[in-house]
Amino acid sequence: MAEADRRAPAEGVAGEMLMEAAGRAVAEAALARWPQARRVLVLAGPGNNGGDGYVAARRLAESGRTVAVAALAPVEALRGDAAVMAARWSGPTLPIGEAGPVDFDLVVDALFGAGLARPLAGVAAHAIGRAADSGLPVLAVDVPSGLNGDTGAAAGAVLPATLTVTFVRLKPGHLLYPGRALCGEVVLADIGMPGSVVAGVGARTFLNRPALWRTAFPEPNPQGHKYDRGHVLVWSGPEFATGAARLAALGAARGGAGAVTLAGPAAALRVHAAHVSAIMLRPAARPDDLHAILAGRRFAIAIVGPGAGDGVEAATDAALAGAAACVLDADVFTAFADRPNALRDRIAERPARPVVVTPHEGEFGRLFGQGGPAGSKLDRAREAARRLGATVVLKGPDTVVASPDGRAAIADNAPPWLATAGAGDTLAGFCAGLLAQGMPAFEAATAAVWLHGEAAREVGPGLIADDLPGALPAVLRRFQSTVAEGGDSQP
User: Fold this and answer.
1) CA angle 236, 239, 240 (to 5 degrees)
2) What is the pTM of this model?
3) DSSP 375-405
4) Measured between alpha carbons, how far is 165 from 143 in angstroms, rounded to an integer?
């Protein structure tokens, strides 16, 4: 966004115009959300965020509110557009250390925006502490002060917001935890930034929405047959650990694969046979038997890891040596613990066939160990994808999908009840079902993550992983209806 602001004047949109529009959007959001708030305190910082605050103060005063600005820097110390907007403010301004939030109904936090990367200190930290202690609602401009907009992390104190108004595009900090929780409700305002400027910046991070992947979403051929939609092979664990592989298989079938086979020891297959009808079963006494199975049948995808138990490394080797694309999950990360380069080398030896790995945070840490990628969740997922040469799905309430080519998407639609045993196994299946139909890896993974969250929302509280495959048809019907109506056009 800093680069977009820099380029905007060349497209005929001055920074002053953008700041005026941003401050107006903040004031409108405050009036819409808190129409009964008559007294407003605006905390104004020394940069452009503070400039937005001065515009909001003027607009709120014009609406009949009693407004005061508590300034972190003297007006004469401001520069650029912020100085222009401060000069247009004729209401009361006092040093931030003298402001008492208890005398007001609403606090507008315009101290620091998304670019802040240092801890708040001194009078600024004291001011947000008093605002937080007041119990008043807080409207944050761009991001809550103290929050890093790139990472969603806080190096020090942050003023939690009830509502955050940001501009043009969301920032990663609005979606990555703990930032998402600190932002409260987020309103994205259009302030007149030309679309050509945003496109020209070349952003590679996206909010996970159907607009990001729907053009790649598979549509069955009316004259096709089941194998046109791909055949998925799922490696099963032993007799008393069959549930995870079965969930993955059911997820693949519901995800659109034309055929799904569970392969594993005969004792495990007898357990599977008592639970499944549409899933085929194939004896494989040892993981090495997968070599022959994958060579002899035209499997599109192999899933290895859910409940795999002993022998998972051999099963992974067999899957990666075959012609099928691969989804690797769960026990694979234990087998390759502290040996990510060994997994990377096996992936690199393959022809150009997609590999998707789906760790949660614990598995991610187990795989990479002490030398793992650092930084935000977004940074770590991107670096892991680059190192492994695979699409990485770093799971959690803010799941990040990252491609080796640098693209990444952050999901925000997972409800809290999705944190349940077996949910990740089902996600691996959803991903495999889409890959089986020819969907590219990044698009298949982002679609699977979004559908997974929507299926959990469809079920609601009380969800168990077994519910997710059965909830998917209703989600797909709504998705297809929205596509037919031309909705959700902005990624």
Assistant:
1) 105
2) 0.94
3) SSHHHHHHHHHHHHTSEEEE-STT-EEE-TT
4) 8
